[in-house]
Each structure stands twice: as structure tokens, then as C-alpha cells.
Specification:
The protein is an alpha+beta fold and 340 residues long. The chain has helices at residues 13-32, 70-76, 108-119, 164-178, 191-200, 205-216, 220-226, 232-235, 251-265, 327-337; strands spanning 36-37, 43-45, 92-94, 100-103, 125-135, 147-157, 184-190, 272-274, 288-294, 302-306, 320-326. It has one domain: Bira Bifunctional Protein, Domain 2 (BirA Bifunctional Protein, domain 2, 2-Layer Sandwich), CATH 3.30.930.10.
Length: 340
């Protein structure tokens, strides 16, 4: 008899207690900042999951960030939703009436769908938070988990303009601090600016998609191999300071500098750094993106950013941004830092 757990994911009492307490503390923090809880379904249709039946990506802006076509490149590569290469749809479920569904690969897509259809009205803003499991199929033998818990927030509507980036970044830092995690760094990048740099270097089509996935996986060796034949002078912008480097005159770079100034005014500048190599796996991001790493955790503990065109996929038009906390990585960091 095969008695393995389907996703190989379970929490024994002591571990479960730590996670529940941490999730409860985060929920109280988010509620105190005006966010309300939402509980989206685990099973979602392929459209809500950002996939068409053939496995292609249907993201909020199929022409990619700033209309440059990155989404099309990534979708055509077969990576698909929630993928860092070859994951595709997570776990498909065929219902009794013949509908093909999938286990949710992240929360932002289903939360965006629910907000667009039931909560967003012209000129209004919704602040939402959630918690639960997400599922992504991994390559055999990769050793990566296929189920993990997330807690996160989404800010959608009129107040979710670029000025709200500082609010979300501050809340991300406060989330870690509230749980005793103090040794961390949050890198801030920009999806549109990264794409500009890669295209100026000559990356197009499949090469652009592969280079993007390499950065999303923080595989700089692979990224170097994939871009070895490109314009290295253009690529050097990724390694130079944003404020006074080759891209400093770009509007996205100026916005990043202003964001850092605002964080500095809040006394949080030491928690953040600008990093143009940050690329998120999920291809709906259009603006600022960020990832937090903490001592004791091998993976990013927080990831998020701005996705101003995603709501259009579900019939609404409004700016939006958010972030998700990987509770498994966060608990690892808590175990090291809080017990030290």
C-alpha cells in the first residue's frame, strides 16, 4: 500500500502551533492596518489560474509589462502559471460535469478575480489579506515542495497607486519585525525596468523568457550563460547603482529612488536595498517588485510587487499591488533568530 501523503506536506502539533500563532499575529497586524480577510477557493478554473486549456498564459496583460511582450514570451515557453520552468498548471482536477480545474498556484489571481467581480466599485479601494496553502508541481527530483502555506495582502483600487508602494513595503518589514525576525534584507526592483535592460542587451523571445526565469530562480550562473552573447555594456546596468548608474534617467529608476527616500523618512532604509536583478516567477507584475531574505531561511520569506493590469483580466480597471509571506521559510527564520 502506498501510504505517502499526496503533497508530502504535514505539520505535527508543535510545528502547527508555531505556525498558527504566527499567522494569527500577522492577521491582527493586517487588520490593524485596515485590511479585511478574504477566503478564496482552493479549486479554481483555468481562467482564474491564468491558464488556457492548452497550457498558455492568459495573464492580466498578455503583451507583458509596459506592452513589451514578456508575458507572451514566457507563456509560449511552456513554463506557464506559477512556473520557474516546466511547472505549468499545478494539479488539474476534472469535475463530474467535465470542467477542468486546478489547485490554486497562488492567491493573487483568485483574490483579484473575486475583488473585480464582487468588491471593487469605481473610485473605491479594497484592502484584503488571506492565508492558506498553494500548490505548484515541480520537476521530478527537484526536491522542491509542492505545497506550502502563504499569508499575504492585496491592495486594489484608487488608493493603490504608485504611492502605496511605500505602504506595502513598510508593512512587509513590519510583518517580519512583529514576529521577532530582525536580521533581514528586502530587495526592491522593477519589472518594467528589468525588461527594458534585457531588451536593450538584445534579449528577445525565448532567450528573454529563459533569462527572466534564471533571474527569478536567482541562478546567476545560468543567467550569465544565457546572456553571454548579448550586449554586456547594456547588462552592466543590472550590477550598478540605480540612482547614478546607466538607467538613472529612466522614469522607473527615478520612482525607485523616490521610494527609497520615502522609506528613509520612515526610518526603514536600512531594511531595504535596490536590486534590478529581482524577477518574480509569476508574470503579472508591471512595476515595482520586491523580495525579502532573512537569516535562517534558505528561500525568500516575502515576495510581491505591483500588477496594475491584472484586474483587467477580470473586467475591472484599477491599480493594484500586494505581497505574500512564505510561512515555511518565515518559521525557519524565526527558529534561528528568535531562539538565538
Amino acid at each position: 500500500m502506498d501510504d505517502r501523503f499526496v503533497m508530502g506536506r504535514y505539520y505535527l502539533p508543535a510545528d502547527a502551533r508555531v505556525r498558527r500563532e504566527a499567522e494569527g499575529r500577522l492577521a491582527r497586524l493586517f487588520a490593524s492596518r485596515g485590511f479585511e480577510e478574504i477566503i478564496p477557493p482552493i479549486l479554481v478554473g483555468l481562467g482564474v489560474a491564468g491558464m488556457d486549456p492548452s497550457g498558455g498564459w492568459l495573464g492580466g496583460n498578455c503583451s507583458g509589462a509596459n506592452g513589451l511582450g514578456r508575458s507572451g514570451a514566457l507563456g509560449a515557453s511552456g513554463g506557464g502559471y506559477g512556473s520557474s520552468g516546466g511547472s505549468g498548471v499545478s494539479y488539474a482536477v476534472l469535475t463530474r460535469d467535465g470542467c477542468l480545474m486546478t489547485l490554486r498556484c497562488d492567491f493573487t489571481m483568485p483574490v483579484a478575480a473575486l475583488a473585480a467581480r464582487h468588491l471593487l466599485r469605481s473610485g473605491e479601494t479594497v484592502r484584503l489579506f488571506y492565508s492558506g496553502s498553494v500548490f505548484r508541481a515541480q520537476k521530478p527530483g527537484s526536491g522542491k515542495q509542492e505545497e506550502w502555506r502563504q499569508v499575504g495582502v492585496e491592495l486594489m483600487g484608487s488608493a493603490a497607486d504608485d504611492g502605496s508602494d511605500v505602504e506595502l513595503l513598510s508593512l512587509a518589514a513590519e510583518s517580519l519585525l512583529s514576529l521577532g525576525v530582525r536580521d533581514f534584507s528586502i530587495g526592491i526592483g522593477h519589472a518594467g525596468l528589468l525588461e527594458k535592460v534585457l531588451r536593450r542587451a538584445g534579449a528577445e523571445g525565448e532567450r528573454l523568457a529563459e533569462a527572466w526565469r534564471a533571474l527569478a530562480g536567482r541562478d546567476f550562473v545560468l543567467f550569465g550563460k544565457l546572456t553571454s552573447g548579448l550586449d554586456q555594456g547594456a547588462l552592466c546596468a543590472l550590477r550598478m547603482p540605480v540612482e547614478d548608474g546607466p538607467v538613472s534617467s529612466e522614469p522607473e529608476a527615478k520612482a525607485l529612488a523616490q521610494t527609497m527616500d520615502a522609506l528613509r523618512e520612515r526610518g526603514l532604509a536600512d531594511c531595504f536595498r535596490l536590486d534590478l536583478t529581482i524577477a518574480r516567477e509569476l508574470d503579472y507584475y508591471t512595476g515595482i517588485v520586491f523580495e525579502a531574505y532573512a537569516r535562517g531561511a534558505g528561500n525568500a520569506v516575502i515576495g510581491g510587487g505591483r500588477y496594475d493590469t491584472l484586474l483587467e483580466r477580470f473586467g475591472a480597471s484599477a491599480p493594484a499591488a500586494g505581497f505574500a509571506i512564505d510561512m515555511d521559510s518565515l518559521v525557519c527564520a524565526m527558529g534561528v533568530q528568535c531562539d538565538a
